[in-house]
């Protein structure tokens, strides 16, 4: 396998290209600020992307559309629980993660017990989570406790803290996928569910843990995003629905399942932020920006797929 | 088999009837020409969008760009079609052709439809913003007249739904080409072996989806009298839900146009029903989700009975 055939390379190349094109305009000024911003904002996309990647790895038809609603619900309940009191950050985290576990278990229950297609099950469930968030939020904007807000916007060794969280999670997911039995089970299930079941893989247990994992990732991203941006908002998760799917696919994970790609998710998350800032710095309006973003996503997918076909 | 196919349409019909009965029970005054018109007014564009989504699901793909595409069609209708009908018509035709082209590219390069349509949703949304940066535009007079016409016996929305269901039923379920198109979803390879060009068939299915997407956008402008770039974004998920509610399956070319229209009507009615319930607005969205789950659970029960019989 030549280095060029590694699917994750494309997202990193694209991110690097967007980065240098943006800097080309300012003739190199602001490079570290741009990288810092990309790492901060990319971290949220990477965290939800890692979760979505696990689900998509389960095979065709598996996708979680409830990510935005889970993010919002986890953030809303966590901030409400903390009610800006100092020293409650870990309690808030526990609330958010509990919401994630609950939402994931509910999603899987709908899929398994009612035999609903995952797209429909997570879509219907997300409507209910959204209602719960609206009901518990009531338009209030509760600030995160000061220490937590400082952590979410702070940095260690020059890297944003949220990026550290995202990187640690990526390493953890990579190790689990490549080195643990569960990861092998997940890949086997995604490659061929029937064969995996006949080979003795506890397929339903793998699916259940995967759907819980994606919801936990989403709730963690929601918790961090709310702390980062000074409070939960009802539409805070909105853009992460398409984003989570886009970073997975641009990152080189096979949409047909059974083949995931951790480094690619981070590359794609950086790219999605950098391409918007590149178009912004070239003065493109919202319309042009969207058209170009879409065109770039499609051309990357085409480039990656023709590359794959040749090898 | 005939039992199962008959079951497939019974469930959507029963759920719509039950919901309608419950609505009439809650609000007897809705049981009138005017009441029905209010209840189903917004169903026409949703039904058209659901049919468009069904064309894509029929060939085993899924379209995540439909909401953005309907919004774009609405923006074109409210601006170009109103100001310079000739150019407007050309743009709408070009949109339909680009949908067909998208289908051809997806098939020729063997790309995942979910990703390509995801990317295209940015493109459609961007173009819509470009045409109409802020909400505005106006509906062409003839379109407004068409959408608000008051036919005898049944309100416009009901008549339109019946016409849409009948036309698409003839096209997809009764005609030769419709059968071949469903065959692409069932077994593309055997369709190809039988001498058909799957490339052309996929382009046709996507083109049909584009046509109904454009019609949905036009119908929406006729009702709303103006447009904005985000007017129909929620149609993406609504249309998927409508197809599945109507007894369609994600794979195997198992779709039902009549069911899809009924599914769209059910979704529209669910919203009206919930407002009659005087449910707190906080819970309206959640209750829609609950209704969706309920109907699909009923489908499971039906399917098991069908398997036993």
UniProtKB/TrEMBL annotation, chain A:
This is ABC transporter permease. It is a multi-pass membrane protein. One of its GO terms (cellular component) is plasma membrane. Keywords: Cell membrane, Membrane, Transmembrane, Transmembrane helix. Coiled coil: none annotated. One of its GO terms (molecular function) is transmembrane transporter activity. The chain crosses the membrane at residues 34-58, 89-111, 118-136, 156-177, 211-234, 240-258, 265-282, 288-306. It is found in: Cell membrane. InterPro entries: ABC_transp_permease. It comes from Sedimentitalea arenosa. It comes from the Bacteria.
TrEMBL record, chain B:
The chain crosses the membrane at residues 9-27, 33-52, 64-81, 87-106, 113-133, 153-172, 203-225, 231-248, 260-279, 285-302. Signal peptide: none annotated. The keyword Aminoacyl-tRNA synthetase does not apply. Its main location: membrane. Keywords: Cell membrane, Membrane, Transmembrane, Transmembrane helix. It is a multi-pass membrane protein. InterPro entries: ABC_transp_permease. It is found in: Cell membrane. One of its GO terms (cellular component) is plasma membrane. One of its GO terms (molecular function) is transmembrane transporter activity. This is ABC transporter permease.
């Amino acid at each position: 396998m030549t280095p060029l055939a590694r699917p994750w390379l494309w997202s990193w190349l694209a991110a690097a290209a967007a980065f240098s094109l943006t800097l080309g305009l300012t003739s190199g000024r602001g490079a570290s600020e741009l990288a810092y911003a990309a790492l901060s904002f990319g971290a949220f996309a990477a965290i939800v992307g890692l979760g979505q990647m696990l689900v998509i790895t389960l095979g065709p038809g598996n996708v979680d559309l409830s990510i935005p609603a889970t993010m919002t619900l986890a953030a809303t309940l966590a901030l409400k629980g903390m009610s800006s009191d100092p020293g409650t950050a870990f309690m808030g985290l526990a609330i958010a993660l509990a919401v994630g576990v609950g939402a994931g278990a509910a999603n899987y229950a709908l899929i398994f017990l009612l035999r609903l297609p995952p797209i429909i099950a997570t879509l219907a469930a997300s409507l209910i989570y959204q209602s719960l968030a609206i009901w518990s939020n009531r338009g209030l904007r509760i600030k995160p406790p000061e220490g937590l807000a400082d952590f979410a916007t702070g940095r260690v060794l020059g890297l944003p803290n949220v990026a550290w969280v995202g990187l640690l999670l990526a390493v953890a997911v990579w190790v689990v996928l490549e080195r643990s039995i569960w990861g092998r089970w997940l890949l086997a299930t995604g490659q061929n569910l029937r064969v995996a079941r006949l080979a003795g893989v506890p397929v339903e247990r793998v699916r259940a843990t995967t759907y819980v994992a994606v919801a936990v990732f989403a709730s963690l991203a929601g918790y961090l995003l709310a702390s980062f941006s000074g409070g939960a908002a009802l539409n805070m998760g909105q853009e992460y629905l398409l984003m989570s799917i886009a970073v997975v696919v641009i990152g080189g994970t096979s949409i047909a399942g059974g083949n995931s790609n951790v480094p690619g998710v981070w590359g794609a998350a950086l790219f999605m932020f950098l391409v918007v800032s590149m178009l912004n710095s070239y003065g493109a309006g919202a319309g042009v920006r969207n058209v170009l973003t879409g065109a770039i996503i499609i051309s990357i997918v085409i480039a990656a797929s023709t590359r794959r076909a040749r090898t | 088999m005939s039992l199962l196919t008959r079951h497939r349409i019974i469930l959507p019909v029963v759920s719509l009837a039950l919901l309608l009965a419950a609505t009439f029970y809650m609000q007897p005054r809705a049981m009138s020409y005017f009441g029905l018109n209010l209840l189903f007014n917004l169903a026409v564009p949703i039904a058209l969008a659901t049919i468009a989504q069904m064309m894509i699901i029929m060939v085993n793909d899924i379209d995540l760009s439909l909401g953005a595409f309907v919004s774009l069609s609405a923006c074109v209708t409210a601006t170009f079609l109103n100001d310079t009908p000739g150019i407007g018509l050309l743009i709408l035709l070009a949109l339909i052709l680009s949908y067909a082209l998208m289908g051809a590219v997806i098939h020729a390069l063997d790309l995942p439809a979910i990703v390509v349509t995801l990317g295209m949703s940015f493109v459609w949304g961007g173009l819509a913003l470009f045409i109409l940066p802020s909400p505005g535009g106006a509906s062409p007079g003839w379109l407004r007249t068409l959408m608000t016409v008051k036919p005898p016996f049944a309100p416009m929305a009901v008549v339109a739904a019946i016409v849409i269901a009948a036309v698409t039923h003839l096209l997809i379920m009764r005609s030769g080409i419709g059968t071949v198109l469903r065959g692409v979803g069932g077994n593309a390879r055997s369709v190809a072996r039988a001498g058909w060009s799957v490339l052309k068939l996929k382009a046709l299915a996507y083109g049909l989806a584009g046509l109904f997407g454009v019609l949905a956008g036009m119908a929406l402008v006729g009702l709303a009298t103006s447009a904005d770039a985000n007017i129909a974004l929620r149609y993406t998920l609504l249309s998927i839900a409508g197809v599945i509610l109507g007894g369609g399956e994600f794979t195997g070319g198992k779709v039902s146009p009549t069911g899809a229209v009924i599914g769209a009507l059910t979704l529209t009615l669910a919203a009206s029903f919930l407002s009659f319930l005087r449910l707190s607005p906080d819970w309206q969205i959640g209750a829609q989700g609950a209704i969706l789950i309920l109907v699909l659970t009923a489908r499971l029960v039906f399917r098991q009975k069908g398997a036993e019989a």
